[in-house]
Amino acid sequence: SCMDQLVGELGIDYIKWDHNKLVTEPGSRRSGRPAVHAQTIAVYEIFKGLKTAHPGLEIESCSSGGGRVDLGILEHADRIWVSDCVDPVERADIQRYTSLLVPPAMMGEHVGASPAHSTQRATSQELRMAMAFFGHMGIEWNLLKEPDEALAKLAVWVAEFKKHRDWFAIDTCVHADSNDPAVRLDGMVMPNRDAAIYRFTQLTTSQTYPAAPVHLPGLDPERTYRVSPLDPSLDLTGLTNGQSTLGWWNEEGVVLTGEALQRYGIRPPSLHPQQAVLFKAVAE
After folding, report:
1. Which residues make Cβ contacts (< 8 Å) with residue 159, sequence separation at least 6?
2. Does domain 172-283 have CATH number 3.40.50.10470?
3. What pLDDT score does 107 carry?
4. Which fold has domain 2-168?
5. What is the DSSP string of 155-211?
């Protein structure tokens, strides 16, 4: 095929496969019969054929129009592009619900600019980096316009991400239930439950102050864990909104049982709206 020829001749190693037409005409004009299913199967075959003929080729499936991300495509694509909106506030729930079916390691999650191009919402660099941390972390941001301080901070987070990304590919993705609609707690737990990394996000102002303890799902209730901030989130300068220092938010952390962390939870930092932090639980 023409695509097969181009990939070979040009040495293409990455394809973003988009679907920029809403499925408003699911029937064939020729036969009048349903055609979307057959077209979807045909896309699977194209992906399969290209990747077989060109080992190492990566194909990212894009979801525009709602037509290119489904369970079947996960067998053939290397990752999927979740949304053109990279605003981290919007992404909190976009990624939350996509991750119920799509492994985060397969989800394109980018650190974007502020204000976001899609919403014009301004957000902190910490929130933008934290919200991309569990996925296929990319950078969609003109770094030539940024000060050295921003680049140095980004480098710290990217280096930390690289330490964990192989684990994220096989970890269990967990979400905590909360009575507080203003907060989100999600995480990635190692298959053997030796350790986990959690993300606490304060999207809006909570009705209670400070926010209630958050439950940490996925841990072994019989084991004890040391809970402490992930290094890039250790410094809360500019993120907190007036509570006294949190006793465990330091390099030593606190040791609690998996059962206590799941049943009662742990007090998170008191954050301004639209902020997020990362912390880890490591079995003793």
Report:
1. none
2. no
3. 96
4. TIM Barrel (3.20.20)
5. HHHHHHHHHHHHHHTTSEEEE---S-TTEEEEEEE-TTSSEEEEEEEE-S--SSSSP
For residue 117, pLDDT beyond 70:
yes
Cα(162)–Cα(99) distance, rounded to whole angstroms?
20
Rounded to whole angstroms, what are the CA distances from 23 to 4, 8, 275? 26, 31, 37
Mean pLDDT of 207-213: 90
Q: What are the boundaries of each domain within the chain? A: 2-168, 172-283
DSSP track, 8-35: HHHT--EEEE---S-S---B-TTT-SB-
**Any idea which residues carry the catalytic annotation?**
18, 84
When computed from its CA atoms, the radius of gyration of the chain, rounded to whole angstroms, is: 21
State the Cα–Cα distance between residues 280 and 261, nearest whole angstrom. Answer: 12
pTM of the model: 0.93
Query: Residue 283 forms beta bridges with which residues?
Result: 225
